[in-house]
């Protein structure tokens, strides 16, 4: 285990197993709809890559980057688009692929934005759900795992841009964010 972690919540095998199950559910839902899977950079990049391999129907992908956290471990409540989609979503069945739903502010903003652009439907798949963090009324349509109200890293999720490359997910030691 990486030395800055307090504990591991989900190992590589558990994550891959769960993603396989999610992929099957999404394939049923999106059969013959040519969905557009939108990865929310950068946290969801590992999840996106593993998930789409398990969704066995024709689909397209695009990427979007938002900012609400900076390098801190608390939400600022302000969502900005740092990188927008390459192509219009009008008439498309969209699946937003997120790493984690915490306050829900990012997803509420993204969902409203895509609906405003006239997507045919907008659904959300998130690998992690942290229900105790919620500030607005939004739920993922599918999620991999519920997590406690702690700051987690690994498998795409960072602290100050680090730990994204860990193949597992764990709770970061409090002393790591107290240092900086
Ligand atoms: P929101 O609070 O808007 O639901 O979450 C916004 C983003 O904050 C998430 O997509 C994720 O990138 C980041 N975030 C929320 N909770 C955590 C966490 O426990 N660990 C890490 N590394 N990022 C988080
Ligand atoms: Mg995210
Ligand atoms: Mg982050």
From TrEMBL:
GO terms for cellular component: cytosol. Coiled coil: none annotated. Pfam families: Pribosyltran (PF00156). It is found in: Cytoplasm. It comes from the Bacteria. It catalyses: GMP + diphosphate = guanine + 5-phospho-alpha-D-ribose 1-diphosphate; IMP + diphosphate = hypoxanthine + 5-phospho-alpha-D-ribose 1-diphosphate. GO terms for biological process: GMP salvage; guanine salvage; hypoxanthine metabolic process; IMP salvage; purine ribonucleoside salvage. Purine salvage pathway enzyme that catalyzes the transfer of the ribosyl-5-phosphate group from 5-phospho-alpha-D-ribose 1-diphosphate (PRPP) to the N9 position of the 6-oxopurines hypoxanthine and guanine to form the corresponding ribonucleotides IMP (inosine 5'-monophosphate) and GMP (guanosine 5'-monophosphate), with the release of PPi. This is Hypoxanthine phosphoribosyltransferase. The lineage of its organism: Bacteria, Bacillati, Bacillota, Bacilli, Bacillales.
């Amino acid at each position: 285990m990486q030395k800055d972690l307090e504990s591991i919540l989900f190992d590589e095998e558990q994550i891959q197993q769960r993603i396989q199950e999610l992929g099957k559910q999404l394939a049923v839902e999106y059969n013959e709809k040519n969905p557009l899977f939108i990865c929310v950079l950068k946290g969801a990049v590992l999840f996106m890559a593993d998930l789409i391999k398990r969704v066995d129907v024709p689909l397209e992908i695009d990427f979007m980057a938002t900012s609400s956290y900076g390098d801190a471990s608390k939400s600022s409540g302000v969502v900005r688009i740092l990188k927008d989609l390459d192509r219009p979503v009008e008439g498309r069945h969209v699946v937003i692929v997120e790493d984690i739903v915490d306050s829900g502010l990012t997803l509420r903003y993204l969902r409203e934005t895509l609906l405003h652009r006239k997507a045919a439907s907008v659904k959300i798949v998130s690998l992690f759900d942290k229900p105790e963090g919620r500030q607005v009324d939004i739920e993922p349509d599918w999620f991999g795992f519920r997590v406690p109200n702690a700051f987690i890293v690994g498998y795409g999720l960072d602290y100050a841009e680090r730990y994204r490359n860990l193949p597992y997910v764990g709770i970061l030691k409090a002393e790591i964010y107290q240092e900086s």
